[in-house]
Write a structure and sequence with these properties.
Elements (H helix, E strand, L loop, with lengths): L25 E3 L2 E4 L2 E4 L2 E4 L23 E10 L2 E8 L5 E8 L4 H16 L8 E7 L2 E7 L4 E2 H8 L4 H21 L2 E2 L8 E3 L5 E3 L6 E2 L19 H4 L7 H16 L15 H10 L12 H10 L10 H4 L3 H4 L8 H6 L9
Antiparallel strand pairs: 1-2, 2-3, 3-4, 5-6, 6-7, 7-9, 8-9, 10-12, 11-14, 12-13
Length: 353
C-alpha cells in the first residue's frame, strides 16, 4: 500500500444496546448514533441538522480494509482507554498502529470514544496522526492509525534525558502548527496534551494524537468547563473548576517543553518521598507560582517562550499562532536542525523486532 493510498475513513458497527442506559446513544439494527455522528457496518457520516432527525443510509466505501488484512506484531503502548498494537498489512507490508478499545465501559467513556471518532473523521492535518478506518469486532472498537515508528516524545525523553533547545524549537514548531489547526480550524481543545500524546517518526515528524477527552467548541472564543485529562499537565483554571478555552492547551504545552528541556517534570514535591496524592500536586499548580526555565541554564528566548505559556491567568498566555512567531521558535530557522537524524540516532524504531 503506497503512501497516500488510504483516505482517512471510518468503518464501525456497534450491536444493539439498552437505550435506557445510553441516554445520548441510539443503536438500532447495528447503527450507532450520537448527535450528528452516525456509524454502521458500511462507514460513517456526519449528518446535517435535518438528516439527524431521520435514519440515514451509509453507502459502502470502496477498497475497504478489514481486520483480517493485518498481522499483529506486538503491543507498542496504551492509548486513552485501550491497547495500541503494531500491525502489518499482509499484502503490502505497510505498518500501522491498531488501537483497540473494549466497549464494556460506562456511558461517559462511550461518549469519549464517539467524540474521538468524530474528531478523527474530520481532522486532516500533517501535524495530527491520521486515522484511516475503524471497525467494531468481537466486543471492541479497533481504530487503524498512522504508525509513528519513533514512539512518543515520552519514550524518546527516556532515551536522551534532556532535549537541546535547537531540537526543542523544531519539535515545538510542529506541535504549534497542530494546535493552531485544532484550535482555529476545528475549534477543538485537546485537553490532554502531554509527552505520551506527541508521536514522532524516523522522518523527523511530530504529530498530536489521542482525542479521547478532547472538546469541540462552537467557535474560536468558546469555553468549556468539564474536568477531564491528565492532572499533571492540567492548567490552573481547569483544576480550579473555572471555564477554560484553547489557552489551557498552551499551559500544557509549556509544561511539556520545560520538562523536555530540564529532564524532569517542572513541579517537584516538597517531600522526599514524592507527592502523597494527586491533590497535593493540584493544589501546588493552583496556589504556587508557575514554574519557569532557569535563566542560568537556558537562553533568554527559551525562558521567554516558557513564560509566555506558563502564565497563571490564561489571558496572559500567547495563542498557538502568536507562539509560532516567538523568537525561540524562529531562532533556529537558518540552522540545519535535522530532527530525523536526531530521532533515529537515539535508538532503533519501534518497528524493530
Amino acid at each position: 500500500m503506497k503512501k497516500g493510498a488510504l483516505a482517512p475513513v471510518l468503518k464501525l458497527n456497534l450491536p444493539p444496546s439498552d437505550e435506557a442506559s445510553l441516554s445520548n446513544f441510539l443503536t438500532e439494527s447495528g447503527t450507532f448514533k450520537d448527535g450528528d455522528l452516525l456509524v454502521n457496518k458500511d462507514g460513517v457520516r456526519i449528518l446535517s441538522e435535518s438528516e439527524a432527525e431521520v435514519p440515514a443510509l451509509i453507502q459502502p466505501l470502496d477498497n475497504q480494509l478489514s481486520l483480517a488484512d493485518f498481522d499483529a506484531i506486538k503491543v507498542i503502548g496504551k492509548g486513552n482507554g485501550g491497547i495500541v498494537r503494531l500491525v502489518q498489512h499482509k499484502w503490502t507490508g505497510q505498518f500501522f498502529a491498531l488501537k483497540v478499545i473494549q466497549m464494556n465501559i460506562e456511558e461517559s467513556a462511550r461518549k469519549n470514544i464517539a467524540q474521538e471518532l468524530k474528531i478523527n473523521q474530520s481532522s486532516q492535518c500533517p501535524y495530527v496522526v491520521v486515522c484511516y478506518q475503524s471497525f467494531y469486532d468481537n466486543g471492541a472498537i479497533s481504530i487503524i492509525l498512522e504508525y509513528m515508528d519513533g514512539g512518543s516524545l515520552a519514550d524518546f525523553l527516556k532515551k536522551v534525558n534532556m532535549i537541546p533547545e535547537s531540537f526543542l524549537a523544531a519539535i515545538c514548531k510542529q506541535v504549534l502548527k497542530g494546535l493552531w489547526y485544532l484550535h482555529h480550524e476545528k475549534h477543538i481543545i485537546h485537553r490532554d496534551l502531554k509527552p505520551s500524546n506527541l508521536l514522532i517518526n524516523h522522518r523527523g515528524e511530530v504529530k498530536i494524537t489521542d482525542f479521547g477527552v478532547s472538546a469541540i467548541l462552537p467557535s474560536t472564543s468558546g469555553q468549556a468547563n468539564t474536568f477531564v485529562g491528565t492532572y499533571n499537565y492540567m492548567s490552573p483554571e481547569r483544576i480550579s473548576g473555572s471555564n477554560y478555552g484553547y489557552k489551557s492547551d498552551i499551559w500544557s504545552l509549556g509544561l511539556v517543553f520545560l520538562e523536555c528541556a530540564m529532564g524532569q517534570f517542572p513541579y517537584s514535591s516538597p517531600q522526599p518521598g514524592g507527592w502523597a496524592n494527586v491533590y497535593e500536586l493540584m493544589v501546588s499548580i493552583v496556589d504556587h507560582p508557575a514554574p519557569h526555565a532557569p535563566s542560568d541554564q537556558f537562553s533568554p528566548e527559551f525562558c521567554s517562550f516558557i513564560s509566555s505559556c506558563l502564565q497563571k491567568d490564561p489571558k496572559d498566555r500567547l495563542s498557538a499562532n502568536e507562539l509560532m512567531a516567538h523568537p525561540f521558535i524562529t531562532k533556529y530557522d537558518n540552522q540545519d536542525v535535522d530532527l530525523a537524524l536526531y530521532f533515529t540516532g537515539a535508538g532503533p524504531s519501534l518497528a524493530a523486532f
